[in-house]
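Worked Example 4.2. Read the sequence first, then its structure tokens.
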Amino acid sequence: MISTANEQQRSANLDTSNGNQQLSKESSSKEDLFNYQDRVAFALNINQVGKILEFSPPTSLRSPPIAIKVMEPCDLSRTYWTGCEWTNNTRRLLPAPKSRALPSAPFKVLDAPYLRDDFYCSTLAYSPICQTLAVGLGNTLYTWSEDAGVHMMHDRPSQGVYLSSVAFSSVYGRKFILAGGRNDGSLVLQSTSDALPRFEVRQPFRVSCLSWRPACTLRPSKNPFNPEVPIQTEDLLVGDDTGTVYYYIVEWPMNWEVSRDNWPGSMYLVAKIVIHNQQVCGLSWSPTGRLFASGGNDNICCLFDVDDVLGENQVSRVSQDTSRTPLVRHGLPFRLQPTQTLRRSASPSFIRTIVEEDVDIRRVQTSGDSLRTLTNGCERHR
């Protein structure tokens, strides 16, 4: 009798153990199934919490079938698996910026005698890199900064001559090149760290506006000691009173490079755009520097693509005369439109390179092979 009772007890314990194992397997399989369903729902962007679908009421009895879409998850704080970590859709609120009280009165007042009251003159420019303000007062170019104060950059005692446009080079280039144009057609380029202008161009007519390209471009260097080495260059647009836009390329080495090579850089004209009937009032670039627009007093605004102006393929050629200083000339082919003409034209009279005050001025003629004249039809939009 005792052995029979023991066998019955062992049988009952075995049944209980098998039942517990079966329940454990079932719970584990259910948990795996739930995890699998959660991951499949997340991958398919299916909401498992929201039980209500959004319906749009029909506008008429003959309206097309109503589209049904799944609503966004109701519980944004629900944690889900992204494949590498657990996260949720809650957004962390950033602290609101502290309000800044701006005074109504200016914190600094600068004396600006002879500041020209002319709608067609833009004689103020600011560089956020060197935090310097440039202003043209009459025929004198000044700069002001919080640290250095007022500094006279360039002056030319000529009666009836005044600065008509001032502009700083691109922020990306970090060259601090200040361009100043005058009503007599003179255009000077000078860095804020230079005592004298490095380049001066004599334009045929009054300089009405200036604009630097906001991006730099890698081009073969014109340095005779490092020819054809890719170097960052700046692009400058110059508008005059006759409605012509001139496109210059400027290579501007640093001061220590000028001292090392005794070479101040290069500035050459590559395009001349005759598009307006009256003076150019404004020039502006797109943020990427791919497009630029010109506006004239003839109430016409034209949009240009730099690739169309300079050509899609820039071919570099070295002068065959090895006895002279090698120059890299750019042949810039481009496709002509039916209303577009191409012809060689005389460049602005000369470019003067000033190295030191007592050194003779070297004149560099702009090559006629690289100068292109574009007329109506070269713009993208008008």
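Now turn to a second chain, presented in exactly the same format:
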Amino acid sequence: MKIPTTTDIPQRYTWCLAGICYSSLAILPSFLSYAESYFNPAFLLENGTSVADLSRFERGNHQPAGVYRVDLWRNDEFIGSQDIVFESTTENTGDKSGGLMPCFNQVFLERIGLNSSAFPELAQQQNNKCINLLKAVPDATINFDFAAMRLNITIPQIALLSSAHGYIPPEEWDEGIPALLLNYNFTGNRGNGNDSYFFSELSGINIGPWRLRNNGSWNYFRGNGYHSEQWNNIGTWVQRAIIPLKSELVMGDGNTGSDIFDGVGFRGVRLYSSDNMYPDSQQGFAPTVRGIARTAAQLTIRQNGFIIYQSYVSPGAFEITDLHPTSSNGDLDVTIDERDGNQQNYTIPYSTVPILQREGRFKFDLTAGDFRSGNSQQSSPFFFQGTALGGLPQEFTAYGGTQLSANYTAFLLGLGRNLGNWGAVSLDVTHARSQLADDSRHEGDSIRFLYAKSMNTFGTNFQLMGYRYSTQGFYTLDDVAYRRMEGYEYDYDYDGEHRDEPIIVNYHNLRFSRKDRLQLNISQSLNDFGSLYISGTHQKYWNTSDSDTWYQVGYTSSWVGISYSLLFSWNESVGIPDNERIVGLNVSVPFNVLTKRRYTRENALDRAYASFNANRNSNGQNSWLAGVGGTLLEGHNLSYHVSQGDTSNNGYTGSATANWQAAYGTLGVGYNYDRDQHDVNWQLSGGVVGHKNGITLSQPLGDTNVLIKAPGAGGVRIENQTGILTDWRGYAVMPYATVYRYNRIALG
């Protein structure tokens, strides 16, 4: 029998037992020198019947064989939680393995990437036979932590299949559970007798591989002598994956692909290759919308005529990084409505970088349906669009496409190439024939050049730099859809009458066809001295000297934790009379740089900061604002900011805002005031998931979401998720999971 150590028994018995042990050793040295301790298992039964084999417990730290659910890691990459069969072993599988060896069959090893054909003996094994990985694959290792239920295996790279990093085989994909989904966002503003509200929703049903979605918005305004209310159905569609084609099928409302032609809205059918189904595919990017608000302002962003984002921003520079455009292409029209009545308008070019395909890969995109736009000045002609890209040897990519409609025909051919250290480029030519609203016919060509490059040595990143030149007779499908040659779009009031104020960002004049356009997005790292960035576009037109120009130049840096930035913005547009240039300065000083606990963020004071911003526009209007902000609560999910300042128009001004990122949604409230007016604004957003076990409320949903079920574990945090807790039943929703990839989720 094994003698227990002093840590196995209470402390008060230690000295007594030690005395007994020493006496035994003195009396019976010969017995202890030649015999092992042994416990007869027959003592457990009275009738002398046989008992289970308990010999493995005599060696200590040994666990029974069987099936265990473990977190499986291969070459430091998380594969997922798996039920693995373990057998007892004397081989080295780690100090904490409990004497267990995982039992893998050939099918499982191939599923996690092992190239079984490279090992003849392994290839001859039966699929259901237990394989010892240490013997089958030279230099493979196994490390099992029984207490943590974590299994780490390493397989030499030469023994793995030549699939891309992160590849998940289709048989591992999960279509998800049947569910009802609702994503909502509600903002409101009340002050000085004016009320305005904006509500947007994205609802849907998931049944097997099918996804039904509806996206809509509601605008309401009362004040200044009129009343307007409007519901916009942005889109309704059914979507599903076509796995054999690695593609997605969309029926209903959507947007065309933008790899080749500019994206446009449609109501019809689209079948396109899905990059998400490919490993290491280019996922594209969502643009960052930057700007300067002189006062507390309402920010509105439109794409293809639809409002896709609306919120309230504090005075000073702002960045919108959580934007989710309805299309991967289509310029973003930004409107900033200041409290003093001024309005800023500018357009941010938004298109993908040159998309190069691996050799042998083919990508297609087919769309047929009616043209669809949120602009009431446009009609809905039927059209067909087809595009294709193919990867060629020597890192070339050939691509082409066509757009066909009753009054429009366009053909495009292009070639792209990876230049290695010199970046990536693409060049294409489009020939188009058009019939416009006045029945005039035109024919022209357009040449487009795109370039992208990241020079890590110099810290320079050309995210996108492009140039397009078009002859005088060149028009796009979007141009042909206009009902009139020139005009604005107007809002409608409650009685259906035109308002006096047009939506000036939707101005068009087909007599001024596009001539040449330069766009760029460049950032430059200065190492310890911060970074510079410049974004902008310059569009010229035929038959006029006017042009659209929008540029932003910024500098950001920090010193001993104090961050500061300088931003210059310049925008002017054809048809928009009030062009503006504005320069702004922003400084943020964390309180913890003034304490001995620098950068620790241990309490609310350490997480607080002081801020200052000042700006001046081309009309000589100045404003400045100083404030204090920070985060509260244990999860740091309540943020606040209070400020006071002065403007040259309205004198003193101030604001107070708070945002709470809760388990069941997010809530933001704000109060703004100046010499002439005051108002209150709020924002409420969240998600609702209906499933077979009930309804679960959540933070705003993403495209891919995970329902977490942990009965009896109410109020438990989800690891690495801000503000997300299980509800009283043990349910929670984790939004923004990665589609067609393993997602690791753990309770905190």
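Notes for the reader: The chain has three domains: 6-55, 66-162, 276-665. Residues 14-27 form the longest helix (14 residues).
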